[in-house]
Amino acid sequence: MSKTKKSPAWLPVALSSLEFFVHSPEYKNEFGHDYVADRCNVNRMTLWRNEIYMKRYYEVREILQEYKPTKSTSGPSYTTDISAELAAAKEKNEQLQNELDALQLRLNDCYQMLEDNGIDPEFVYPTKLKKHREA
Protein backbone atom coordinates (compact mmCIF):
# COMPACT_ATOMS: atom_id res chain seq x y z
CA MET A 1 0.00 0.00 0.00
CA SER A 2 1.27 3.39 -0.86
CA LYS A 3 0.73 6.22 1.51
CA THR A 4 -0.38 9.35 -0.27
CA LYS A 5 -0.49 12.49 1.71
CA LYS A 6 -3.64 14.43 1.03
CA SER A 7 -3.18 18.18 0.92
CA PRO A 8 -5.43 20.20 3.23
CA ALA A 9 -8.42 22.05 1.84
CA TRP A 10 -6.97 25.46 2.77
CA LEU A 11 -3.69 24.95 0.86
CA PRO A 12 -4.88 26.14 -2.60
CA VAL A 13 -6.28 29.31 -1.03
CA ALA A 14 -3.02 29.92 0.83
CA LEU A 15 -0.90 29.39 -2.28
CA SER A 16 -3.12 31.68 -4.35
CA SER A 17 -2.77 34.32 -1.64
CA LEU A 18 1.01 34.04 -1.94
CA GLU A 19 0.76 34.30 -5.73
CA PHE A 20 -1.16 37.53 -5.30
CA PHE A 21 1.92 39.08 -3.69
CA VAL A 22 4.17 37.78 -6.48
CA HIS A 23 2.02 39.49 -9.10
CA SER A 24 1.33 42.62 -7.01
CA PRO A 25 4.52 43.36 -5.06
CA GLU A 26 3.42 46.92 -4.31
CA TYR A 27 1.33 45.43 -1.49
CA LYS A 28 4.35 43.88 0.20
CA ASN A 29 3.68 45.76 3.44
CA GLU A 30 0.63 43.49 3.96
CA PHE A 31 2.60 40.28 3.29
CA GLY A 32 2.83 37.80 6.13
CA HIS A 33 1.40 34.74 7.77
CA ASP A 34 -1.40 36.74 9.38
CA TYR A 35 -2.79 37.80 5.99
CA VAL A 36 -2.87 34.22 4.69
CA ALA A 37 -4.17 32.77 7.98
CA ASP A 38 -7.11 35.21 7.96
CA ARG A 39 -8.03 34.31 4.37
CA CYS A 40 -7.79 30.54 5.00
CA ASN A 41 -9.40 30.52 8.47
CA VAL A 42 -6.48 28.64 10.02
CA ASN A 43 -3.93 29.65 12.60
CA ARG A 44 -0.30 30.50 11.91
CA MET A 45 1.02 27.27 13.45
CA THR A 46 -0.98 25.28 10.91
CA LEU A 47 0.66 27.26 8.13
CA TRP A 48 4.14 26.76 9.59
CA ARG A 49 3.68 22.99 9.74
CA ASN A 50 2.90 22.66 6.03
CA GLU A 51 6.10 22.18 4.01
CA ILE A 52 4.61 23.12 0.63
CA TYR A 53 3.25 26.38 1.98
CA MET A 54 6.44 27.30 3.84
CA LYS A 55 8.63 26.58 0.81
CA ARG A 56 6.56 28.90 -1.36
CA TYR A 57 6.33 31.47 1.44
CA TYR A 58 10.13 31.78 1.60
CA GLU A 59 10.35 32.07 -2.19
CA VAL A 60 7.78 34.87 -2.23
CA ARG A 61 9.51 36.61 0.66
CA GLU A 62 12.79 36.66 -1.30
CA ILE A 63 11.00 38.12 -4.32
CA LEU A 64 9.41 40.85 -2.22
CA GLN A 65 12.67 41.76 -0.50
CA GLU A 66 14.23 42.48 -3.88
CA TYR A 67 11.28 44.65 -4.99
CA LYS A 68 11.95 48.38 -4.97
CA PRO A 69 9.08 50.73 -5.84
CA THR A 70 9.88 52.95 -8.81
CA LYS A 71 6.78 55.07 -9.08
CA SER A 72 4.58 56.05 -6.18
CA THR A 73 1.05 57.32 -6.51
CA SER A 74 1.16 59.21 -3.22
CA GLY A 75 4.29 61.29 -3.77
CA PRO A 76 7.94 60.63 -4.39
CA SER A 77 9.16 57.12 -3.83
CA TYR A 78 11.09 56.38 -0.66
CA THR A 79 14.02 54.81 -2.50
CA THR A 80 14.49 57.79 -4.83
CA ASP A 81 14.58 60.13 -1.83
CA ILE A 82 17.34 58.06 -0.28
CA SER A 83 19.25 57.87 -3.57
CA ALA A 84 19.14 61.63 -4.04
CA GLU A 85 20.15 62.20 -0.42
CA LEU A 86 23.02 59.72 -0.73
CA ALA A 87 24.28 61.34 -3.93
CA ALA A 88 24.19 64.79 -2.29
CA ALA A 89 26.04 63.47 0.77
CA LYS A 90 28.72 61.85 -1.42
CA GLU A 91 29.19 65.08 -3.37
CA LYS A 92 29.48 67.11 -0.17
CA ASN A 93 31.94 64.58 1.29
CA GLU A 94 34.10 64.79 -1.85
CA GLN A 95 34.02 68.60 -1.74
CA LEU A 96 35.04 68.65 1.94
CA GLN A 97 37.84 66.14 1.28
CA ASN A 98 39.21 68.32 -1.54
CA GLU A 99 39.07 71.37 0.74
CA LEU A 100 40.86 69.45 3.50
CA ASP A 101 43.60 68.34 1.10
CA ALA A 102 44.09 71.93 -0.11
CA LEU A 103 44.35 73.22 3.46
CA GLN A 104 46.86 70.50 4.36
CA LEU A 105 49.02 71.55 1.40
CA ARG A 106 48.86 75.18 2.55
CA LEU A 107 49.89 74.15 6.05
CA ASN A 108 52.81 72.13 4.70
CA ASP A 109 53.88 75.13 2.60
CA CYS A 110 53.79 77.32 5.72
CA TYR A 111 56.01 74.86 7.58
CA GLN A 112 58.41 74.77 4.65
CA MET A 113 58.60 78.58 4.51
CA LEU A 114 59.33 78.68 8.24
CA GLU A 115 62.13 76.14 7.81
CA ASP A 116 63.51 78.04 4.79
CA ASN A 117 63.77 81.22 6.88
CA GLY A 118 65.53 79.45 9.71
CA ILE A 119 62.58 79.39 12.09
CA ASP A 120 61.85 76.18 13.95
CA PRO A 121 58.26 75.14 13.09
CA GLU A 122 58.06 73.16 16.34
CA PHE A 123 58.44 76.43 18.26
CA VAL A 124 55.58 78.11 16.34
CA TYR A 125 53.16 75.18 15.98
CA PRO A 126 54.21 72.41 18.39
CA THR A 127 51.04 70.30 18.10
CA LYS A 128 50.70 70.47 14.32
CA LEU A 129 54.28 69.45 13.52
CA LYS A 130 53.50 65.74 13.63
CA LYS A 131 51.15 66.08 10.64
CA HIS A 132 53.82 68.06 8.76
CA ARG A 133 56.45 65.39 9.28
CA GLU A 134 54.06 62.63 8.20
CA ALA A 135 53.17 64.43 4.96
How do you describe this structure in short?
The chain is mostly helical and 135 residues long.
Number of helices: 7
Name the helix and strand elements from N-terminus to C-terminus, one letter apiece. HHHHHHH
Q: Report the major sheet.
A: none
Cα-atom radius of gyration = 32 Å
| Portion of residues within helices | 55-70%
Q: How many strands appear in the DSSP assignment? A: 0
Q: Catalogue the unreliable spans.
A: none
**Beta-strand percent range:** under 5%
Overall domain count:
2
From the spread of the alpha carbons, the general shape counts as rod-shaped
Mean pLDDT: 80
- For the terminal residues, how far apart are their CA atoms? 84 Å
Which structural class should the secondary elements be placed in? mainly alpha
Explained architecture:
The chain folds into 2 domains: 8-68, no CATH class; 92-135, no CATH class. The protein is 68% helix and 0% strand. It has 7 helices and no strands. It has helices at residues 11-23, 33-40, 44-49, 51-66, 78-116, 121-124, 129-134. The longest helix is centred in the C-terminal third of the chain and has 39 residues, at 78-116. The model has no long low-confidence stretch (mean pLDDT 80).
